[in-house]
Sequence to fold (642 residues):
Amino acid sequence: MSKYINYFTWDSMSQLSYSKSIGMLAAGNDRFGIMEVSTKSLDYFASLDLLLDKNPIHRLGPPSFGWSVQFSAEQYQKRCAEGKQAQNGFEDFLDRYIEAKSKVPDIVDDNVAEMYLITNLVAGSETVASTICAAVYYVLKDRAVYNRLQEELRGANLSAPPQWKEVRSLPYLDAVMREAMRVHPGVGLLLERIVPKGGFTLPDGRFVPEGTTVGMNPWVMNRDSTIFGSEPDSFMPERWLPAEGEIDEAYQTRSSKMKSTDFTFGAGPQVCLGRHISQLESYKFVATLFTNFDNSTSASSVNCSNPRAAPHSPTQPPTITQPHIISPSHSINNNRTYTRRMTDTAIQPDPALTQLNGGTSNLKSMAPHLPSPQAQCTSTPSTQQPTTSSSLSEIIAQCHHKVHTFLAESHPPDSLLAAVQRQTRISLDVAATALSRYSLPELALSYNGGKDCLVLLVLFLASLHPHPPPENGGLKSIPAIYALPPDPFPTVEEFVQWSSNAYHLDIIKYTTEPPKSTLKSSFAHYLSLHPSVKAIFVGTRRTDPHGAKLTHFDRTDSGWPDFVRVHPVIDWHYAEIWAFIRQLGLEYCPLYDQGYTSLGGQTDTHPNPKLRVDITAGNEATKHYRPAYELTEDLEERLGRN
Fold:
């Protein structure tokens, strides 16, 4: 059975990439010897890699994936000659890679596009098969798990085949899949990164020099009993569900700790971009299998025919045969060099792949450690600006301290700062109400780097205090969505990236290019990736389009994805926003110092004419703009927008 699972994943990824199946399922065999090559290459003795595989005189390494290289090159050249393959509105990866080549030719050329295709096929097939095999193996091994999963699936009245929007909301299926990926992560070795320039100081004070290769092993992390509870070597889907008698707050804390430690797909800016396809494919496969088929295999028939590939081995996923279940024959092995080659290509920022997933990558600003923008602030800046070396719990404490220090200040009742203090207290009450209605996994933030969203972000973080550190169950990052205009300012994108690092935001970017992609479709896709989210904090104010009739809590309009919009700063005036930013000494987007007062895309945004200053030197007059915070009138804010 495991062979057919592999046939399925290879065929599926080929279909997604080229709109052409390799034909393994139809043939019922390993066409072209792909799996045989994979097995031999992954049993390779990695410590001799430089001497053997990378020998500059004569290669002595394992069999290569030459067939996939040739196949990908042929499909690419054929598509370039014949044009788009889109059918029924579906564009495959190859269409998107060709599109990327025309849009960003300095980044994507023919060789890079072909490399993307090869990576899709090789990295996107084995790992998904490993996850599916692990899930099926352990479900069949435990009759109680099998019965509970089948009962949930058959009681859900799923479509045929099941749709993602149906299966993603099934709690026991989700628990089974998470547990399968915990026990058998697709990559059972270090996910390596290189320490950036300047080095890095660990929380315990130890210093790691720049250039050091560091990494964490998902297989080892997933067996930490302090995170995942007792019997970490056992397959127990129930660990992902509330225990009997467990209060919701305790469960949310425990669940959050496990999910934040999940490195199945890596983490951070270079997390695997194919993770959503992997989850969709594996969840739907397992749901389809156990909804439509009964299996009579008993736990007593489980045996291990290959001691090297024992069920708890980090190097091998389960192989399933009928009628017996045995352990596996191949997976990603503990091959250090191979993993560098595979994971490094698989996680590169890829505009076409990201757009297919509903997001976008700014390839020129993907450096994981961007410097702080040189934003100017004429008020005295605080010495407690967020830094990337602080944990989220520390950032939350800093924001709380800054906000409440400001609230403790004494200002004349009719002054601007007194009005800002009143608005701040109202906004904190709104945030507190949201936190009482929803758990943290049910909340997200809309952030675009603008002044209103910056105030919203700081107030939201201040409301989370006190928040435990990650090792005690606290969050590592705040989930956020960033909807870009079709022509974003690079300066804004750089500031958003800085904000993401400084405030620990886990941002998913979307480019809105109506009618192809809209704000509505962006939020719909974001919620499909985060099905637990029920409310999103938004930095809308009254003077914004469609802001006049909003309240602090508004459910989305008909035709929109269903969630509650939370508007803590809805009643803030323009001058109050800037007074808050400058009084607290917050870093802001540098465009505001160039006369921009409302930020959109490059084609519809320009410096506000109300801030224009003509300076004459000799016989020449030059045009300058005062900073945004010198504007005072709400109705003049959007004069810089077309």
Summary: The chain has four domains: 1-141, 158-293, 392-589, 592-636. DSSP finds 21 helices and 14 strands in the chain.
